[in-house]
Write a structure and sequence with these properties.
Length: 209
């Protein structure tokens, strides 16, 4: 059986490849050096080949009747947001309070899982962050991984694009949104527990228990 995390990883890889292909296409027309242009075209072809392989893998897993997003349907709480909005640490924190949590990363290049639109909207909470904080956090993350801080992932225009996309998704779902900027995990978790209590979607657990 294919693990849900494997599906998520493949989707993130697919999104990254799509972004890379688009970035190469954007600069190709501006390159005059023949050798450099040839190298970029080869790189683009390799990206497209890899993208096809990833699409085939994802299609294969779905055609096999797997349910990679079953956790969304079974969760008491679903957290949605772009990268670096504290989805994972919050999921772990709340799981320790016996709450079944699923988190869904929002990426412009990847469709939102249909299961998100099938569940009760009151079970969904959106997470967002300020562009400045995201820029700093993502830059730090790239450096920690030994990668260039100039990558698209940490650029402000990319961050703003992701935030705009996430805002549209959250408005469509009509879910409450919490800005996690400069908030401790415990503080944000407390806000989530308050919302859950208000909506009556889980037995109330005191924040300090």
């Amino acid at each position: 059986m294919i693990e849900p995390d494997t599906i998520k990883l493949l989707r993130e890889c697919d999104a990254g490849i799509r972004m890379g292909t688009a970035s190469i296409a954007d600069v190709l027309d501006k390159v005059n050096d023949t050798k450099l242009k040839e190298m970029l075209e080869n790189c683009k072809d390799q990206h497209q080949d890899l993208q096809k392989e990833l699409e085939s893998l994802l299609e294969e897993f779905h055609d096999d009747g797997k349910e990679p997003n079953k956790g969304i349907l079974e969760a008491e709480l679903v957290l949605i947001g772009i990268s670096r909005t504290s989805k994972t640490p919050l999921s772990m924190y709340l799981a320790n309070r016996n709450i079944k949590v699923a988190n869904v990363p929002l990426v412009p290049e990847i469709p939102v899982p249909k299961e998100v639109y099938e569940i009760d909207p009151k079970k969904i909470i959106g997470l967002t962050n300020s562009p400045e904080v995201l820029n700093n956090v993502r830059t730090t993350r790239l450096k920690a991984l030994g990668l260039s801080s100039n990558a698209s992932y940490a650029k402000l225009d990319r961050i703003l694009e992701e935030l705009e996309y996430a805002d549209k998704v959250m408005k469509k779902l009509g879910c409450p949104v919490i800005n996690v900027a400069n908030k401790a995990i415990e503080e944000t978790a407390g806000d989530i527990l308050d919302i859950m209590k208000e909506k009556g979607i889980h037995k109330w657990i005191h924040k300090d228990s």
